[in-house]
Amino acid sequence: MKDIITTLNNRRTIREFTNEKIDDNIIKEILNALMHSATSNGLQQASIIRVTAEDKKKAIAKVCNQEYVARVPELFIFIADHYRNFRLIRDNGRNYDTVSNVDIFIQGLTDATILASNMVSMVESMDLGAFFIGSILNDTQRIIEILNLPKLTYPVVGVGFGKPNQKPQMKPKIPSELRVFENSYVYYEDYKKTFKKYDEEMQTYYDLRDANRRVDSFSDQVYNKTQKPISKRDEFLNVARKNSYKL
Protein backbone atom coordinates (compact mmCIF):
# COMPACT_ATOMS: atom_id res chain seq x y z
CA MET A 1 0.00 0.00 0.00
CA LYS A 2 1.37 3.41 -1.01
CA ASP A 3 1.57 6.35 1.39
CA ILE A 4 -0.91 9.18 0.90
CA ILE A 5 1.60 11.74 -0.44
CA THR A 6 2.85 9.32 -3.12
CA THR A 7 -0.73 8.40 -3.97
CA LEU A 8 -1.89 11.99 -4.44
CA ASN A 9 1.24 13.06 -6.35
CA ASN A 10 0.70 10.27 -8.86
CA ARG A 11 -3.07 10.17 -9.13
CA ARG A 12 -4.70 9.99 -12.52
CA THR A 13 -8.18 9.11 -13.65
CA ILE A 14 -8.65 5.51 -14.81
CA ARG A 15 -11.69 4.67 -16.92
CA GLU A 16 -10.85 1.24 -18.32
CA PHE A 17 -10.50 -1.82 -16.09
CA THR A 18 -9.79 -5.52 -16.25
CA ASN A 19 -12.59 -7.99 -15.56
CA GLU A 20 -10.92 -9.03 -12.32
CA LYS A 21 -13.33 -8.95 -9.38
CA ILE A 22 -12.37 -6.91 -6.33
CA ASP A 23 -12.23 -9.13 -3.25
CA ASP A 24 -15.20 -8.58 -0.94
CA ASN A 25 -12.84 -8.27 2.03
CA ILE A 26 -11.18 -5.28 0.35
CA ILE A 27 -14.57 -3.67 -0.25
CA LYS A 28 -15.51 -4.27 3.38
CA GLU A 29 -12.19 -2.80 4.56
CA ILE A 30 -12.70 0.33 2.44
CA LEU A 31 -16.29 0.86 3.58
CA ASN A 32 -15.47 0.33 7.24
CA ALA A 33 -12.65 2.88 7.01
CA LEU A 34 -14.96 5.38 5.28
CA MET A 35 -17.24 5.38 8.30
CA HIS A 36 -14.49 7.26 10.17
CA SER A 37 -14.49 10.16 7.68
CA ALA A 38 -14.97 13.70 8.94
CA THR A 39 -18.59 14.85 9.00
CA SER A 40 -20.38 18.17 9.56
CA ASN A 41 -21.46 18.61 13.18
CA GLY A 42 -20.90 14.89 13.70
CA LEU A 43 -24.33 14.27 12.14
CA GLN A 44 -23.09 11.85 9.43
CA GLN A 45 -25.48 13.23 6.83
CA ALA A 46 -24.39 11.12 3.87
CA SER A 47 -24.86 7.53 2.77
CA ILE A 48 -23.38 5.29 0.09
CA ILE A 49 -25.11 3.04 -2.42
CA ARG A 50 -23.09 0.24 -3.99
CA VAL A 51 -24.58 -0.44 -7.42
CA THR A 52 -24.19 -4.07 -8.47
CA ALA A 53 -27.30 -4.61 -10.63
CA GLU A 54 -26.33 -4.46 -14.30
CA ASP A 55 -29.60 -2.80 -15.34
CA LYS A 56 -29.06 -0.01 -12.83
CA LYS A 57 -25.46 0.46 -13.96
CA LYS A 58 -26.64 0.81 -17.54
CA ALA A 59 -29.36 3.27 -16.54
CA ILE A 60 -26.85 5.40 -14.61
CA ALA A 61 -24.40 5.26 -17.53
CA LYS A 62 -27.17 6.56 -19.78
CA VAL A 63 -27.73 9.53 -17.47
CA CYS A 64 -23.99 10.17 -17.43
CA ASN A 65 -23.67 9.72 -21.21
CA GLN A 66 -20.53 7.70 -20.43
CA GLU A 67 -20.80 4.05 -21.45
CA TYR A 68 -17.79 2.95 -19.40
CA VAL A 69 -19.79 3.65 -16.23
CA ALA A 70 -21.83 0.53 -17.05
CA ARG A 71 -18.66 -1.59 -17.28
CA VAL A 72 -16.79 -0.49 -14.17
CA PRO A 73 -16.27 -3.38 -11.70
CA GLU A 74 -17.28 -1.33 -8.65
CA LEU A 75 -19.74 1.56 -8.75
CA PHE A 76 -20.73 3.64 -5.73
CA ILE A 77 -23.10 6.60 -5.53
CA PHE A 78 -22.70 9.03 -2.63
CA ILE A 79 -25.83 10.77 -1.43
CA ALA A 80 -26.68 13.54 0.99
CA ASP A 81 -28.86 11.68 3.46
CA HIS A 82 -31.12 13.63 5.82
CA TYR A 83 -33.90 11.04 5.75
CA ARG A 84 -32.16 8.98 8.45
CA ASN A 85 -31.90 11.90 10.88
CA PHE A 86 -35.42 13.06 9.99
CA ARG A 87 -36.72 9.64 11.03
CA LEU A 88 -34.66 9.64 14.22
CA ILE A 89 -36.16 13.01 15.19
CA ARG A 90 -39.74 12.17 14.13
CA ASP A 91 -39.79 8.68 15.60
CA ASN A 92 -38.66 10.13 18.93
CA GLY A 93 -41.69 12.42 18.87
CA ARG A 94 -39.79 15.67 18.28
CA ASN A 95 -40.15 18.63 15.90
CA TYR A 96 -38.36 17.87 12.62
CA ASP A 97 -39.07 21.09 10.67
CA THR A 98 -35.42 22.22 10.67
CA VAL A 99 -33.97 19.01 9.25
CA SER A 100 -34.40 20.23 5.67
CA ASN A 101 -33.02 23.79 5.62
CA VAL A 102 -30.26 25.16 3.36
CA ASP A 103 -27.48 24.80 5.94
CA ILE A 104 -28.37 21.17 6.65
CA PHE A 105 -28.60 20.44 2.90
CA ILE A 106 -25.11 21.85 2.24
CA GLN A 107 -23.71 19.88 5.18
CA GLY A 108 -24.99 16.70 3.53
CA LEU A 109 -23.41 17.63 0.19
CA THR A 110 -20.11 18.23 1.99
CA ASP A 111 -20.27 14.94 3.91
CA ALA A 112 -20.94 12.98 0.72
CA THR A 113 -18.06 14.68 -1.10
CA ILE A 114 -15.63 13.93 1.73
CA LEU A 115 -16.65 10.25 1.67
CA ALA A 116 -16.14 10.03 -2.09
CA SER A 117 -12.73 11.71 -1.96
CA ASN A 118 -11.59 9.42 0.84
CA MET A 119 -12.69 6.36 -1.11
CA VAL A 120 -10.67 7.38 -4.16
CA SER A 121 -7.57 8.04 -2.05
CA MET A 122 -7.89 4.64 -0.40
CA VAL A 123 -8.40 2.59 -3.54
CA GLU A 124 -5.57 4.35 -5.34
CA SER A 125 -3.24 3.62 -2.40
CA MET A 126 -4.06 -0.06 -3.06
CA ASP A 127 -2.88 0.25 -6.68
CA LEU A 128 -6.45 0.20 -7.95
CA GLY A 129 -7.71 2.77 -10.43
CA ALA A 130 -10.69 5.08 -9.96
CA PHE A 131 -12.74 7.88 -11.45
CA PHE A 132 -15.23 10.36 -10.04
CA ILE A 133 -18.66 10.59 -11.67
CA GLY A 134 -19.96 14.13 -11.49
CA SER A 135 -22.19 13.46 -14.49
CA ILE A 136 -24.85 11.83 -12.32
CA LEU A 137 -25.93 15.47 -11.90
CA ASN A 138 -27.00 15.48 -15.57
CA ASP A 139 -30.40 14.28 -14.37
CA THR A 140 -30.66 14.01 -10.60
CA GLN A 141 -34.38 13.21 -10.72
CA ARG A 142 -33.63 10.14 -12.82
CA ILE A 143 -30.86 9.04 -10.43
CA ILE A 144 -33.33 9.39 -7.54
CA GLU A 145 -35.72 7.11 -9.43
CA ILE A 146 -33.07 4.53 -10.37
CA LEU A 147 -31.83 4.23 -6.78
CA ASN A 148 -35.28 4.54 -5.19
CA LEU A 149 -34.10 7.38 -2.96
CA PRO A 150 -36.52 8.63 -0.30
CA LYS A 151 -37.36 12.27 0.40
CA LEU A 152 -34.62 14.30 2.07
CA THR A 153 -31.85 12.57 0.15
CA TYR A 154 -29.93 13.83 -2.87
CA PRO A 155 -27.32 12.26 -5.21
CA VAL A 156 -24.02 14.12 -5.06
CA VAL A 157 -21.25 12.23 -6.84
CA GLY A 158 -20.28 8.74 -7.95
CA VAL A 159 -17.04 6.76 -7.83
CA GLY A 160 -16.04 3.84 -10.01
CA PHE A 161 -12.99 1.68 -9.43
CA GLY A 162 -11.25 -1.59 -10.27
CA LYS A 163 -7.99 -3.06 -11.53
CA PRO A 164 -6.58 -0.61 -14.12
CA ASN A 165 -6.43 -1.65 -17.75
CA GLN A 166 -4.84 1.53 -19.12
CA LYS A 167 -1.93 3.84 -18.33
CA PRO A 168 -3.05 7.38 -19.13
CA GLN A 169 -0.67 10.30 -19.20
CA MET A 170 -0.52 12.38 -16.02
CA LYS A 171 -2.81 15.37 -16.54
CA PRO A 172 -1.08 18.72 -15.85
CA LYS A 173 -2.67 20.73 -13.06
CA ILE A 174 -2.49 24.42 -12.19
CA PRO A 175 0.68 24.95 -10.12
CA SER A 176 0.14 25.56 -6.41
CA GLU A 177 1.47 29.13 -6.52
CA LEU A 178 -1.55 30.08 -8.65
CA ARG A 179 -4.08 28.39 -6.36
CA VAL A 180 -2.68 28.67 -2.85
CA PHE A 181 -2.58 32.12 -1.24
CA GLU A 182 -1.61 33.41 2.18
CA ASN A 183 -3.96 35.54 4.27
CA SER A 184 -5.85 37.03 1.34
CA TYR A 185 -6.80 36.31 -2.27
CA VAL A 186 -4.19 37.17 -4.89
CA TYR A 187 -5.28 38.98 -8.07
CA TYR A 188 -3.20 39.05 -11.25
CA GLU A 189 -2.97 41.98 -13.63
CA ASP A 190 -3.10 39.82 -16.76
CA TYR A 191 -4.54 36.32 -16.44
CA LYS A 192 -3.79 35.44 -20.06
CA LYS A 193 -0.11 36.15 -19.49
CA THR A 194 -0.05 34.54 -16.03
CA PHE A 195 -1.54 31.28 -17.33
CA LYS A 196 0.42 31.18 -20.61
CA LYS A 197 2.90 28.56 -19.38
CA TYR A 198 0.16 26.34 -17.98
CA ASP A 199 -1.87 26.70 -21.19
CA GLU A 200 1.13 25.48 -23.17
CA GLU A 201 1.73 22.61 -20.78
CA MET A 202 -1.89 21.50 -20.98
CA GLN A 203 -1.65 21.29 -24.77
CA THR A 204 0.92 18.51 -24.39
CA TYR A 205 -1.64 16.29 -22.62
CA TYR A 206 -3.44 13.51 -24.47
CA ASP A 207 -6.96 12.63 -23.33
CA LEU A 208 -7.65 8.93 -23.94
CA ARG A 209 -11.39 9.68 -24.11
CA ASP A 210 -10.95 11.63 -27.32
CA ALA A 211 -8.99 9.41 -29.69
CA ASN A 212 -5.69 10.26 -28.02
CA ARG A 213 -5.66 13.81 -29.34
CA ARG A 214 -4.02 16.67 -27.53
CA VAL A 215 -6.43 18.80 -25.53
CA ASP A 216 -7.09 22.51 -25.88
CA SER A 217 -5.30 25.02 -23.69
CA PHE A 218 -6.81 25.40 -20.24
CA SER A 219 -8.03 28.91 -21.10
CA ASP A 220 -9.88 27.50 -24.13
CA GLN A 221 -11.34 24.69 -22.04
CA VAL A 222 -12.62 27.17 -19.46
CA TYR A 223 -14.42 29.07 -22.20
CA ASN A 224 -15.73 26.10 -24.19
CA LYS A 225 -16.98 24.09 -21.24
CA THR A 226 -18.87 27.02 -19.73
CA GLN A 227 -20.66 27.82 -23.00
CA LYS A 228 -22.62 24.55 -23.12
CA PRO A 229 -24.55 24.16 -19.86
CA ILE A 230 -26.55 20.94 -19.43
CA SER A 231 -30.16 22.06 -19.16
CA LYS A 232 -31.25 19.46 -16.61
CA ARG A 233 -28.49 20.59 -14.25
CA ASP A 234 -30.33 23.90 -14.01
CA GLU A 235 -33.06 21.91 -12.25
CA PHE A 236 -30.73 20.98 -9.36
CA LEU A 237 -32.47 23.09 -6.72
CA ASN A 238 -35.95 22.37 -8.05
CA VAL A 239 -35.35 18.63 -7.77
CA ALA A 240 -34.03 19.11 -4.22
CA ARG A 241 -37.15 21.10 -3.31
CA LYS A 242 -39.30 18.36 -4.84
CA ASN A 243 -37.51 15.93 -2.55
CA SER A 244 -38.67 17.92 0.50
CA TYR A 245 -35.69 20.25 1.05
CA LYS A 246 -36.69 23.80 2.07
CA LEU A 247 -34.30 25.83 -0.07
From TrEMBL:
Gene3D superfamilies: NADH Oxidase. Residues 10-163 form the Nitroreductase domain. The keyword Transmembrane helix does not apply. The keyword 4Fe-4S does not apply. InterPro entries: Flavin_OxRdtase_Frp (IPR016446), Nitroreductase (IPR029479), Nitroreductase-like (IPR000415). Belongs to the flavin oxidoreductase frp family. PANTHER family: OXYGEN-INSENSITIVE NADPH NITROREDUCTASE (PTHR43425:SF2). This is Nitroreductase. Pfam families: Nitroreductase. It comes from Peptoniphilus olsenii. It comes from the Bacteria. Keywords: Flavoprotein, FMN, NADP, Oxidoreductase.
